Amino acid sequence: MRITEIFHSIQGESTYAGEPCVFVRLTGCPLRCTWCDTAYAFHEGQEMSLADVMTAVKSYGCRLVEVTGGEPLAQSQTIELIESLCETGYKVLVETSGAIDISPVDRRAQIILDVKCPGSGMTERMWWPNLAQLTAKDEVKFVVAGRSDYDWAVGIIERYGLTGLCPVLMSPVFETLEPRQLAEWILRDRLPIRFQLQLHKFIWAPDARGV
């Protein structure tokens, strides 16, 4: 499989925000979100065997692992990687764009599904049946670029009953939407979700890699 980077950092998002985590970033993505902050993962990286990836992950001595991208599920070998990590006893998070069917993913892993708001330019690429496959241990994430994205996201949350299904997270596009503005919308609407920021962009430089 082609790997862009494997690194040990502080989890910047999700309900595990703040925890040490090993990230396995796979190369390639069929989407081109307008606000993408990991475009370097579209083409960079090197070929690694499953055994080499597992060895690299083990070297950090951390039990929380996130498989991400790019879009990790765009590579067929990712399914075997996730299964191997689960078999080895890791707590596995899989961050996916929602554009690819999640049904083959080992259900011991925790899906973090990024629902693409209109501001991303990729809403039409969503595979909506994915939402019906989520369970209470999974998470749904909305990255919001402005008020129209927020209103759209609220509609999706209500339509699919997401707050009664699993944790729902919402974050502003970095340096595009003022965090306080999004927080005020959530509070005004009494929206029962989790507001989040990308912690790693405040700890390190926003464009830093390997963090």
From TrEMBL:
Function: Catalyzes the complex heterocyclic radical-mediated conversion of 6-carboxy-5,6,7,8-tetrahydropterin (CPH4) to 7-carboxy-7-deazaguanine (CDG), a step common to the biosynthetic pathways of all 7-deazapurine-containing compounds.
Assigned protein family: Belongs to the radical SAM superfamily. 7-carboxy-7-deazaguanine synthase family.
Record: residues binding S-adenosyl-L-methionine: W35, C36, D37, G70
Catalyzed chemical reaction(s): 6-carboxy-5,6,7,8-tetrahydropterin + H(+) = 7-carboxy-7-carbaguanine + NH4(+)
Coiled coil feature spans: none
Classification via InterPro entries: 7-CO-7-deazaguanine_synth-like, Aldolase_TIM, rSAM, rSAM_QueE_gams, rSAM_sf
A GO MF label: magnesium ion binding
Subunit details: Homodimer.
Residues covered by the Radical SAM core domain: 16-206
HAMAP family per record: QueE
Cofactor binding mode and count: Binds 1 [4Fe-4S] cluster. The cluster is coordinated with 3 cysteines and an exchangeable S-adenosyl-L-methionine.
Cofactor: Mg(2+); [4Fe-4S] cluster; S-adenosyl-L-methionine
Residues at which [4Fe-4S] cluster binds: C29, C33, C36
Gene Ontology biological-process entries: tRNA queuosine(34) biosynthetic process
Keywords: 4Fe-4S, Iron, Iron-sulfur, Lyase, Magnesium, Metal-binding, Queuosine biosynthesis, S-adenosyl-L-methionine
Positions that bind Mg(2+): T38
Positions contributing to substrate binding: I10, Q11, G12, R25, T68
Alphabetized PROSITE patterns for the sequence: RADICAL_SAM
Organism domain of life: Bacteria
One Pfam family named in its UniProt record: Radical_SAM
Pathway: Purine metabolism; 7-cyano-7-deazaguanine biosynthesis
Protein name: 7-carboxy-7-deazaguanine synthase
E.C. number(s) listed in UniProt: 4.3.99.3
